[in-house]
Model the fold of this input.
Amino acid sequence: MKVLVLTSGGDAPGMNMVLFQLYKRFGHNLYACRAGFKGLINNDIIPISEFKPLGKAKQAGSIIKCSRCPEFKTEAGFNQGLENAKRFDVVVVLGGNGSYKGCKQLNDNGVRTVFIPATIDNDVHISDYSLGYHTAVQACVKTIDNVMPSMDAFDRACIFEVMGRNCPRIAKGVNLGYPCDYMITSKKDIDYKKIAEIIKNNHDLGKGSAILLKERIIKNQTLIKNLNKLEPKIEIKAVTVGYTQRGSAPTDIDLEYARKFAKFAINIISHKKISGAIIYKKNKFYIINNDDEGDS
Ligand code: F6P
Done:
């Protein structure tokens, strides 16, 4: 059996562990597209052993590379990818919602596919958990933990900007791990008067303030400028947590999720002869058929 795997969209900590588990099971029958659907379109497909998966299972990133591939959404790009995918018995796709869509489209056109949700945003609608989320949240908590003692030393405030594209789950998870003084996950949360008051109160008590900001809402410098109009004497800094969320080594929890996602994928590939997605719902792993969208 010839198995093809690709990692699509943003890389997610834990992807390499899944790749390693698949390699352990399928060995030289496992092939990889370089850089997701881009590699599928360009037929940039080689045995995964050439990416040297041994010893990399616990590293972040993806040894077989990722990409965002708008070309796969065009008819010509898709047809090219489809032709190359058809040379394999099954195609395994790791990624987010967009990648799931691409995966299903291949399946609708006669390719056997298996999907694994993997994105730090944890917003794949069919699954309660997407690989990489725990690591991303922990990376933010660690950053805030490491920065706040310095803010406290000066009674400063700090805006921590975290990833999450259009989804507030990372910010909300971070706020559980490090309860911040204020959290902004949408435009309506930008209440300058209230934030300035919190910063001022903490400052007067001899404390710093941690303000959590989800990306793509407002530039952190604009936020600082407007807050400084209300509180000109308090220093406000900004830290963009950014790519450390994707580049941090997967936590033990994500490594465990990766092993489980891989185990279920291997089972479906080897024994079930069907297409589907591996999902995690209500504390359990399931295999769902591509027509079954689960709760959205
Ligand atoms: O999809 C995961 C993610 O990290 C988002 O949280 C973020 O908005 C985006 O990717 C960044 O994408 P890129 O790496 O293409 O800049």
Q: What stands out?
A: The mean pLDDT is 96. The chain has two domains: 3-132+250-295, 135-247.
